[in-house]
Amino acid sequence: MRQQSTTPVAMGELFVNPQEWLHLISNRLIDFIRCHISTIGGITPAKKLAHYCEGFSVRTAWHGPGDVSPVGHAANLHLDLSSANFGVQEWYGPSDVIREVFPGTPELRRGYLYPNSNPGLGIDIDERLAAKFPCDNSKSVPNMWTTARTRDGASARP
């Protein structure tokens, strides 16, 4: 596909271990790594992956759909800001309720995403307000946020 098109290629949304991305990056078969940072082990493994990609001119595009929490989006943003090979960031635009429950959620202004100046990832949680919105983990709907993946990529549910 790479040799037949000039369209940049992004992969990694379902990747869970290095064996899935090492050959794609080292052979420059992709332009963007698009992993979900919680499924590859968190901030430290994601930062290491970004550094590895940098040596092969592969840019980051951390996975950030609507089922990623404000904490996850803040982690994505902090990785973006600390990576020389940042490419693009997927963003879903949280609702006003989400912003109230999670004060410190990154803000989108004129096409740019901004962190706050609080320590760490800068996100807090209003537990009283959150209690008004209980989470129903009993749903067995495919592709819900409760879906997790095992090391071999198989779907697993809590």
UniProtKB/TrEMBL annotation:
SUPFAM superfamilies: Enolase C-terminal domain-like (SSF51604). InterPro entries: DgoD-like (IPR034593), Enolase-like_C_sf (IPR036849), Enolase-like_N (IPR029017), Enolase_C-like (IPR029065). Residues 2-128 form the Enolase C-terminal domain. Pfam families: MR_MLE_C (PF13378). This is Unannotated protein. It comes from freshwater metagenome.
